[in-house]
Amino acid sequence: MLRKERLRVALVSVSFGEYCMRLANALSPHADVLLVMPEMVVRPYAGKLDGRVRLFSYANPRLRQPLRQLRTIRTVMREIAAFSPEVIHYQGFHIWFDLALGAWHRYPLVFTVHDFRAHPGDRLTQKTPFWVEMLARRRADQIIVHSQHVEELLGRELGGKARNIHRIPHLQIGSGTGSAKFEEEEKLILFFGRIWEYKGLEYLIRAEPLISARVPQARILIAGQGEDFEPYRRMMKNPERFLVDYEYISEERTAEYFHRAAVVVLPYIEASQSGVISLAYSAGKPVVATTVGGLPEMVEDGRTGFLVPPRDESALADAVVRLLEDRKLRREMGICGKKKLEAECSPELVAQKTMEIYRRAIEGIAYAEKATVVRDASAAIPRTGGGN
After folding, report:
1. What Å distances lie between residue 59 and 79, 100, 333, 376, CA to CA?
2. Do 7-171+346-376 and 188-344 share a fold?
3. How far is 254 from 257, CA to CA, in rounded Å?
4. 94, 174, 194, 333: which could join 279 in a potential S-S bond, CB 3.0 to 4.6 Å?
């Protein structure tokens, strides 16, 4: 089959703003891209969209407003139909869009599964029942995941369709800029991102006295928002050791925090993969993470950071202290992390692999349609001949 040089791709998501912006930009040299996202999600990144990417943004109503949701989805579908894509790439975890996927059956569908299930305590993703999400995934012609961990979990659920699952690393996020603007604070520990139960922040808070006893100048910066933060404040034995920025963190402040940090900590008790690791590597920072989910696939123990058991504040403290006390080791690990990111997760590499998945989806649909025509034609031929 002859391949067209450029495809028409509709990239549809209700979240993952920076990820989708960077993916759309990376795809734009190879495809005509329509990026469909809610206004509030894409707004912080719209100014960085490649001029070749066509953006359609919309006001996203609340999930408990079904009529408004249906009107919104109908508007989105009309915009997609007018664009006339050859493939739709959907990102998932939205109950109304998941249920509407059946109406897009005329387009080959690629589905990126960022998380197999909603994370513990994450009330946002838990609003979509698991059976609805799996129903949507089964409609996909090809599926992209970011870790072997998710690939194995999803493969067991999908059975025979597991052959359509493809692993592509999480695309690099974080510009890596600003290093000259912000000085590293040698004893600053960064916890960054959404604050939900699965992020294990309580174990970092419990580790603080162990860290401070050995590194008295250590400080922990917590940046992000999520569940009620007061229970975490009450856990702090030494509140003066913590710097808390509990709100939405802009891209500019994100760059600042990662460049100021000496080490980035992910004390998670459950995970699929993490964009926080990508941000850390972009800034040349070592990572201390737990051995859960896909995190060991992203952190090379002893090379780009350290891996520790989950729920073990003593092991967590030991790893953090080792990095705080060894500037040379931090630098070496930061360099290795940056090289790993560029070698495995660069936007250009991810875009090339994603384009191959699009072509598989398109060619698979074409093959299925051709097979259907052949079967229908065979059935229409009258049977003649013989008797006994």
Report:
1. 14, 18, 43, 44
2. yes
3. 5
4. 174
Structure token pair of residue 315: 């092991």
Residue by residue, pLDDT tens for the chain (388 residues) are 445 568 999 999 998 888 999 999 999 999 999 999 999 999 988 899 999 999 999 998 787 788 888 899 999 999 999 999 999 999 877 888 888 888 888 899 999 999 888 877 666 566 778 888 899 999 999 999 999 999 999 999 998 888 999 999 988 887 654 455 788 999 999 999 999 999 999 999 999 999 999 999 999 999 999 999 999 999 999 999 999 999 999 888 999 999 999 999 999 999 988 899 999 999 999 999 999 999 999 999 999 999 999 999 999 999 999 999 999 999 999 999 999 999 999 999 999 999 999 999 999 765 455 444 445 444 555 554 444 4
Burial of 117 (0-12, 13-18, 19+ CB in 10 A): middle
- For the chain, the C-alpha Rg in angstroms (whole number) is 23
Q: What are phi and psi of 145, to 5 degrees?
A: -125, 165
- In whole angstroms, what separates CA 184 from the centre of its chain? 27
Which of these CATH numbers, 3.40.190.10, 3.40.50.2000, 3.40.50.460, 3.10.20.30, describes 188-344?
Answer: 3.40.50.2000
Name residue, tokens 């001029």. 51
Beta-bridge mates of residue 222:
191, 244
| Sequence spans of domains, the chain | 7-171+346-376, 188-344
What superfamily in CATH does domain 7-171+346-376 come from? Answer: Glycogen Phosphorylase B; (3.40.50.2000)
SS3 225: coil
How far apart, in whole angstroms, are the C-alpha atoms of residue 73 and residue 50? 25
Does an H or E element contain 74, and which? helix 66-83
